[in-house]
Amino acid sequence: MSRRRTEGRWQRGAVLAVTLCGVACRRAEEEEPPSETPAPPVRTCSSWASSAPASLEPLPTGPYVETFEAAWDLVRRRHPDPTLRCLPWVALRQTYGQKVATATTRAEAYGYLNDLLATLNESHLHAWPPGATGARLEGEGPVGQSAARFVLDGGTPRMAGAQARAEGYAGAELRAVDGVDLETLRAGVVHQSPAMREESKLRAALDDALRCRVGQDRALTVVPREAASAVSREVGVSCAPYEGARVSLGHLRRVPTEVRAQMIPGTQVGVLAFNVWMLPMLPKIRGALSRLRAEGMRQLLIDLRGNPGGVGSMVMPMGRMLMREDASLGELVLRDHVQRLVVSGQTDAFSGPISILVDEASASTSEIFAQGMRDLGRASVVGVQTSAGMALPSVIESLPDGGALQLVVGHHHGPSQGAPEGRGVQLDGVLFLDQAAYRDHDDPVRNAAVRWMRRRSSPSVVD
Q1: Is 165 helix (H, G, I), strand (E, B) or coil?
Q2: Exposed site from 17, 93, 253, 322, fewest CB < 10 Å?
Q3: In what order do the strands lie in the sheet with 259-263?
């Protein structure tokens, strides 16, 4: 059964207060116009806090209606705004509940459920049917990482990395994965928000396509950057196992974790990179930072490219390693309380210049941390693309049929009240890459970030 996807946002109507007057009233208005423009009426929104399903008209019966009702009610009870952005949440329950009741497959039912969630136009709000969370939320089984590396450069995916350099296609445009072109891949992305940036959609599509299991290969179609015509080339990349420890938290099971640290040769710049925000990683991050300082680091580049977030409270102990005075990285505004992200300064914290490297896949906790550090003036933010713009606190809840719902439970504000949701963290340095950057460096983006840092600290530096 086909369905029509709801597009756009609900338009907020105006409440019009009308006063009925007699003929004399109208004449008086004509003879003596009002001395000042009346204030526009104030719109009030209804709270749905007391609209429990048991108090409402029952929905039609159907095999997927119970799951729909549970998801609808979780949003009603736990969303930070009890008015749900002034949406007619009870009426929407009937509209989409009736559609779900007619669904003949679970996929169709979840499609209608996600259409309902999309009316809120927020990231971190999506439902997955049973078994569909594995690829995105888990590291179960022999899941690995593709050797393919790419950079979204001006919205175009270009190949980078050691294999691309060795085989002579560094900087080439990526056109297809296993014969599937980019537009088809993009169309298959599970949209977490109707306002999701196009760069983030494309990145999500390519990450999904390149996700692999150990022993698999991926066939890439690439076109050299300098080619006069679109002469394509097929290259193969293999899948290697993750070597880092695996961490579990709720629905996030056996997530591969990775912490990397190194000094850039010939500089005093240290690079610290980690792939997800999970509290058990803190000792490794602390140890890596200590090693960099012992090796003479004077400037720090925190590489958060591809880091989708994780545990929001981890920004506080992370901040303690980098700030010598007490500060706030902002706040998370939940329905019933506000969680302030307070950092207690440490006298032995690293005090040198810091830059944070982001891309279109840096999201959630990565954006909360970057926004807070930038607002405080403690770090600059650099990248080829700005971050994902998906920075709402959320939890993952189970649904009655075994599916899962990622549920928004708060809003985030940085120290200056700025929020990256929907726009990303503003860049202090936009990195530009030419063909030589891809040809000469395995990681052209990191190299460009280091060059930017060194030039900012000492304009006379020539690399």
Answers
A1: helix
A2: 17
A3: 259-263, 269-274, 299-303, 354-357, 380-383, 429-430
Burial class (CB in 10 A: 0-12, 13-18, 19+), 58: exposed
Write out the two tokens for 120: 């809120």
Paired with 397 in beta bridges are 405
Query: Which residues have C-beta within 8 Å of that of residue 311, sequence separation ≥ 6?
Result: 249, 277, 278, 279, 365
pTM of the complete model: 0.85
CA distance 222 to 439: 15
CA atoms within 13 Å, Cβ hemisphere of 223: 12
Stretch (H or E) spanning 137: helix 134-137
- pLDDT score of 440 more than 50: yes
Q: Is 54 exposed, middle or buried (0-12, 13-18, 19+ CB in 10 A)?
A: exposed
User: Using an 8 Å Cβ cutoff, are 173 and 225 in contact?
Assistant: yes
Dump the DSSP string for 175-243. EEETTEEHHHHHHT---S-TT--HHHHHHHHHHHHH-EETT-EEEEEEE-TT-SS---EEEEEEEEE--
The token pair at 458 is 């000492």
Band (pLDDT 50/70/90 cuts) for residue 2 is very low
Task: Report which of 43, 42, 120, 53 is spatially closest to residue 81, judged by C-alpha positions.
Answer: 120
Tell me the two tokens of residue 378: 């403690």
Question: Treating both helix axes as pointing N-terminal to C-terminal, what angle do 65-78 and 106-118 enclose, rounded to 10 degrees?
Answer: 20
Give residue-wise pLDDT tens across range 157-189: 999 999 999 999 999 999 999 999 999 998 877
Q: Tokens in use for 136?
A: 């995105």
Q: Are strands 143-146 and 233-241 parallel, antiparallel or unpaired?
A: antiparallel
| Helix (H/G/I), strand (E/B), else coil: 406 | strand
